[in-house]
Sequence to fold (207 residues):
Amino acid sequence: MKRFILSAVFACLFVFSAQAQEDAMPDDNYSKWQLRVRAVAVAPEPYFFDAISGFDPEFSTEFAPEVDISYFLSKNIAVELMFTTSTHDVEVEDVVSLGSVSLLPPTLTLQYHARLGNFKPYIGAGLNYTIFYGEEAGDLDAISYENEIGYVLQAGIDYNLSDKWFINLDFKKIFLKTEITPNNDNTSTVEANLDPLIMGFGVGMKF
Fold:
């Protein structure tokens, strides 16, 4: 999956380079605001450091609604703010249930958009702040997750259906580290990179 994301990013960079001269031409005919509504799959890809023996949780992939709004600083440069929330089951090798946890990861990215007729590919990078809430402990007495800031890489494409409406395909990779504490025991805290991949498809509106 990581190779796929890198390939998509490099492909977009190639397209942007090929279109750079055309994109530099003056053009005031663009919408400064865009709103998208997507269905997303949120797929954490965790790995652990200094883990307790036998403590190697797996997080389920879940589907969720997502909404974002973009503001174009120019016809090629935009800022996007994304909101979604998802609830994930957590377990250890299908044996021990660690209940579930919900993620609220508001994400802000700076994007570069190319223009290829009705196709508008883009790449972006930015910051994310993930809030963990609604923890269910499963077979444990308690479990907690530390809210953290992460970095984000993004690639996607818009396709115009009309002057106002378009469809969108989007990929975001969030590099997110957190601390997980089982049973309120700080001596058992483990550090984990959850690194969720967020894949979305939806519809957008320019205004």
